[in-house]
Specification:
The complex is a heterodimer. The longest helix of chain A has 21 residues. Chain A folds into two domains: 88 residues, no CATH class; 70 residues, no CATH class. Chain A contains nine helices and no strands. Chain A is an all-alpha fold. Chain B is mostly helical. Among the domains of chain B are: 88 residues; 47 residues, no CATH class. Chain B has ten helices and no strands. The longest helix of chain B is centred in the C-terminal third of the chain and has 25 residues. The model of chain B has no long low-confidence stretch (mean pLDDT 94). Classes of the chains: A mainly alpha, B mainly alpha. At the A-B interface, helix 2, helix 3, helix 5, helix 6 and helix 7 of A face helix 1, helix 2, helix 3, helix 4 and helix 5 of B.
Chain lengths: 186, 203
């Protein structure tokens, strides 16, 4: 922060005490321990771990049933999900809705909610929009090949010491390291 | 264990706690997330590894105490090449797009419109996969290990031995991370994340 900016901001002697200041993030060790306990609770209550892409697959199936019922909607991948006519009726839908509620509450409580196009400052809005879309495309396609994403296979799969979970994580970090050196992004 | 309200109650509860921790970790911010791959912000490694160790040890202690039936837990099948290809693609998407599927939800509800675009990309990627599914079936079954689904089964060691190794790795990660974070610009702070700043202009 330069001095010109500082002059515009009211004196903040208490540091994080100011109303305008976002609360700091939790230390990673604390966040990791709490996340581990939440994951443990999920296993105890449901017998499986946490996830995310299960919901997006069901949402994609529901969209395909609406927009392309005779082609994609009746294709072999989505058909089993659409059999009972209620593709979104599943535990994972409630869990992802919960993630949105819990994260929204945390952002509000932490004074960290702000409408923005994050990353556009360094990349420009068109490039940021393009890499966000392409990144999502890769992640969406990839998570279907592995039948799980960072949460479902990486985190929850590794917690039960599964080979698939560790294979996912090793490849995830190796390719991520390389990709971040090849493509300029946020 | 069943709780009243079944799917709805346990889904909302576990999800809300998950989302609350993710946002408080800073994982709604794409520059904080990709900082892991630039090796300037090690929060992703630290949080994930700590959580895996805590949950794994917790599961084994509950099992030893007779409070949990380990056979009832879902273990993903060991289809290792499919898991690695998917992991690589999700890793590439994470490095390029700034999110993974779960964290893009956190980005959205903290006001980030770029996270919404990532979500649109996720759906498009899922449609592409579904459209090509008949051709892709062999890929989803590649590298299946028939004999073991878990590391303790494969190596024939007690699960707590693997937990110990993971714990040692987690401690090592915190030491390595401290070195890298001292040399570079350091972890992305909440203030930088909210302002949409990245302390490390990439490349």
């Amino acid at each position: 922060m330069n001095t010109a900016q500082q002059a515009c901001v009211p004196e903040d002697t208490a540091g994080v005490g100011s109303l305008a200041m976002p609360r700091p993030f939790w230390p990673p060790l604390v966040a990791g321990i709490v996340l581990g306990l939440v994951l443990l609770l999920t296993f105890v209550l449901t017998g499986h771990g946490l996830g995310a892409t299960g919901f997006f697959t069901r949402l994609a199936a529901a969209g395909a049933a609406e927009a392309a019922p005779t082609t994609l909607g009746s294709g072999s991948y989505f058909a089993p999900l659409l059999e009972d006519g209620r593709p979104l009726s599943s535990w994972i839908t409630w869990q992802v809705l919960g993630v949105a509620l819990g994260a929204g509450l945390a952002a509000w409580w932490g004074r960290r909610f702000r409408f923005q196009f994050d990353g556009s400052r360094g990349l420009g809005t068109p490039r940021r929009a393009a890499v966000a879309l392409i990144g999502g495309l890769f992640a969406g396609f990839g998570a279907r090949v592995s039948a799980g994403c960072t949460s479902g296979l990486g985190l929850s799969g590794a917690a039960v010491l599964s080979l698939a979970g560790f294979a996912f994580l090793v490849a995830f970090f190796a390719v991520g390291l390389i990709a971040s050196r090849l493509v300029r992004s946020v | 264990m069943m709780i009243p309200g079944g799917d709805v109650a346990s889904g909302l509860l576990c999800g809300a706690l998950f989302g609350f921790v993710l946002e408080n970790s800073g994982f709604g911010s794409p520059s904080k997330l990709t900082g892991q791959f630039r090796l300037t912000d090690w929060s992703v490694f630290k949080v994930m590894f700590t959580a895996i160790v805590v949950a794994a040890i917790g599961l084994h202690l509950l099992t030893l105490a007779g409070l949990l039936d380990a056979d009832g837990l879902f273990v993903p099948p060991a289809v290792l090449i499919a898991a690695a290809i998917g992991g690589g693609l999700v890793g590439a998407g994470f490095a390029v797009g700034g999110y993974c599927p779960g964290t893009s939800v956190v980005g959205c509800v903290s006001g980030r419109l770029d996270a919404l675009l990532f979500l649109v990309g996720l759906l498009a990627g899922t449609w592409m996969f579904a459209a090509g599914f008949d051709v892709l079936v062999p890929l989803t079954k590649a590298g299946e290990v028939g004999t073991a689904d878990t590391l303790p089964e494969l190596l024939r060691v007690p699960p707590l031995v693997i937990d110990g190794v993971l714990l040692a790795m987690a401690v090592a990660i915190f030491f390595v991370a401290a070195r890298f974070e001292r040399q570079g610009p350091g972890p992305v702070t909440a203030q930088q994340a909210v302002a949409g700043e990245s302390p490390n202009p990439a490349l």
